[in-house]
Design a protein that fits this description.
heterodimer; A: 406 residues; alpha/beta; 10-stranded mixed beta sheet; two-stranded antiparallel sheet; globular; B: mainly alpha; 0% strand
């Protein structure tokens, strides 16, 4: 079986819009969460959101490309450009070689609402912009990026709630392992438009700590009261190891393991420690590593009481008494939804490259279920060789990835 | 609207909304071959015509217009 490595990364998030700034934010435990009063005026109870700037694409892309891009696709373009640049992949390379794309995305709401509003006002579908189709499908990201970057390999979107882009990385690895592809751009992206938040707000999943934005996201803390919507995009260039070596690429990490499971329980919104345990155990087995060898676990922990507790139980079953440090970078970023698996892969590899573990900020009183875990409350400086990044999503989908230095 | 007003509105749309270089927006230039308009751009033009000139062009008509002058003449003939 071929080995799969990461040779490029890109990020556009609320804690930075390039690898350097994001590394700084992670190292210093900087929150990217703000309060936006427009969200309350809109009718949401949670006015908190990740502060993700809209990229200015006009100097970068002609209108024919920009016109069909969703908010998600715009973020993804910025992350993908960074990833290809770091990997040394030029436009000429992309025109001469077959490269694929697999992104995690589980819904684009804002453009659908815009089209619906026009239909209500005009009662005439001829007044809908012809670009709407390419902006409102979940595959808007892969459609647009394939066109811009001349991608001719596998092209698809993975929809698996908040584990979408973790699965996208796992699937990209499988395509390369099997020899079907040599290189695939993988990642995840999500819009930050308030139009995407009502349904999550409606099930009491979002924090109401509106008066304390940077302290509101509190994974594993007894006072956590919900997640905070966030977004942007993360992208990674996955490549066959021999292929990367042959073209002289810098190898950032190996994608050493992928595990998955689905809870299969009857409650669609309830997390389940058994499912998460199975996914993580499967990833460990796939990577041929033991829990003793894991230096760091990037937890899914979103700052919801039920979700954090179930994950803590699963993590305790695997890592109680082990050396692994654990933190949830969502304490700084908020919940990056379908982007989270990919962004947390980027965050984890940045930590590996820079020998530190980012803190789980805002952890004052740890929940009982996590009392036996080594949760990093402050930045810890040490070499990291093997990382497990855990993800899960509504409906019971779970995904775990293992990254290793090489 | 008068013909000059029609031309002015259409030129502004092509220049500002579709970001087409004004130097190629000549009446005799062909929309696809010379000006580089795509089929999606033609549909955007159709929406602009309805909003600006008060009539809904038939899509089949829009796709049969060849030159910029054809667009001006079509609007002049159909505007309400």
């Amino acid at each position: 079986m071929r080995r799969v490595v990461v040779t490029g990364m890109g990020i556009w998030s609320c804690i930075g819009q390039n690898l350097h700034d994001v590394t700084e934010s992670l190292q210093h435990g900087r929150s990217g969460i703000i309060f936006d009063s427009a969200r309350l005026e809109f009718g949401l109870r949670c006015g908190l959101v990740g502060d993700v700037p809209k990229p200015d694409l006009k100097p970068l892309l002609p209108r024919k490309f920009r016109a069909t891009m969703s908010e998600d696709a715009q973020y993804a373009y910025m992350a993908a450009s960074q990833a290809f640049a770091q990997s040394g992949i030029t436009d000429d390379y992309l025109r001469q070689n077959e490269v694929g794309i697999i992104f995690g995305n589980d819904g684009i709401v804002s453009h659908i609402v815009e089209n619906y509003t026009i239909m209500q006002q005009e009662h005439d579908s001829m007044m809908i912009t012809p670009n709407a189709l390419f902006q409102s499908e979940t595959s808007s990201v892969t459609m647009n990026l394939s066109t811009i970057f001349h991608l001719r390999g596998i092209s698809m979107i993975v929809g698996a709630a908040c584990a979408s882009s973790s699965h996208a990385i796992g699937l990209g690895r499988m395509y390369i392992q099997s020899g079907l592809q040599d290189m695939i751009l993988v990642g995840g992206t999500v819009e930050t438009s308030m139009l995407g938040s009502p349904s999550t707000d409606a099930i009491d999943a979002l924090s109401l700590r509106n008066n304390d934005p940077t302290r509101a996201c509190r994974p594993f803390d007894k006072d956590c009261d919900g997640m905070i919507p966030s977004g942007g995009a993360a992208a990674l260039v996955l490549e066959d190891y021999d292929h990367a070596v042959a073209r002289g690429a810098t190898i950032l990490a190996e994608v050493a393991g992928y595990g998955f499971s689905t809870n299969g329980t009857e409650d669609i919104s309830m997390p389940n420690n058994e499912g998460e345990y199975i996914a993580m155990q499967r990833a460990l087995k796939d990577a041929c590593v033991t829990t003793d060898e894991i230096d760091y676990v990037n937890a899914h922990a979103t700052s919801t009481p039920l979700g954090d507790a179930e994950e803590a139980i699963a993590l305790t079953r695997l890592f109680k008494g082990k050396k692994a440090w654990i933190s949830s970078t969502k304490s700084m970023t908020g919940h990056e939804n379908w982007m989270a698996g990919a962004s947390e892969a980027v965050y984890s590899i940045l930590m590996m490259q820079n020998n530190f573990i980012a803190p789980n900020i805002n952890l004052d009183q740890v929940i009982d279920e996590a009392k036996d875990l080594k949760i990093a409350r402050e930045t810890i400086y040490q070499p990291i060789n093997i990382v497990l990044s855990n993800s899960s999503g509504m409906g019971g989908t779970n995904s775990a990835l293992i990254f290793r230095t090489i | 609207m008068t013909r000059p007003e029609i031309e002015q509105r259409i030129l502004a749309f092509l220049r500002d909304k579709l970001e087409i270089d004004e130097s190629i927006l000549l009446p005799t230039n062909e929309l696809k071959r010379d000006i580089g308009m795509s089929s999606l751009d033609a549909m955007e033009l159709s929406i602009f015509i309805k909003r600006t000139f008060g009539f809904q062009p038939e899509r089949k008509d829009i796709h049969t217009l060849v030159t910029l002058a054809d667009v001006y003449a079509y609007i002049e003939a159909h505007q309400s």
